[in-house]
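Why do we care about 3D structure at all? Because function follows from shape, and shape follows, mostly, from sequence. That is the central idea of this module. The next example makes it concrete: a single protein chain, its amino acid sequence, and then its structure expressed as tokens.
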Amino acid sequence: MRNPLRERLNEGKASAGILTCMPSVTMAQALANMGFDWMFIDMEHGPIDIASAHAMITASSGTDCAPVVRVMEPKISYTKPVLDAGAMGIIFPMITNKSLAEDAVKAVRYPPHGERGWGPFFAPMRWGNGDPMEYYKASGDVVIIALIEHIEAVDNIDEILEVAGIDVFLIAPMDLAASMGHVGDRDHPDVQAAIARAEKAISGAGRNMGALCLSAEEGNEKIERGYKVLLMGFDMLLLNIGAESMLNGLNR
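And the structure:
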């Protein structure tokens, strides 16, 4: 059994992901086959329910695109269904302190390191060979991603970094900007200063950093600064870019 995203992290390679907020199996299948290393299935914003998430996770089968799901909160009631559906990673929003980071780890791992209950009926099939015990052995490879997206998280970053088990700390600039009173302005000097504080702490602790990147140029710049996990936009952005390329300049 293998988790391609975990493998890339272990090898020190950068990983490019794409977010999808549409409850669409065909969209998930298409994105998983486009060359992305991981797919961010968003159950925090948008209409994706557990049945859709399960189908979208399954739609990534046969590819090296790891299905990763964002849940609402670090609670077992949110994580258990998507993990049992075969998710290879969980993204937790608004991790602003050490206690929430600890809850995130507990909500993903089996005892004695966590609180996950036993019931992997479908996950083993997505991970490899359908054997629940083999899946149990591999389940420690589920990637845990904490979103650093509030100024409180930046202020508490050192204590958050003390928590073992978080694999990636992804700095999300838009919510961070909003929490600082700069809605929609991720380039505001104060926001960039907060990002720099988080970068320094995460990098200094030897932990994996993640970031939102809206172009290959921005992604390469982040890679040079030590980022390993890149979120390269989202499904609606891809559709908008495609639509604009077809319509701009059309004489109608």
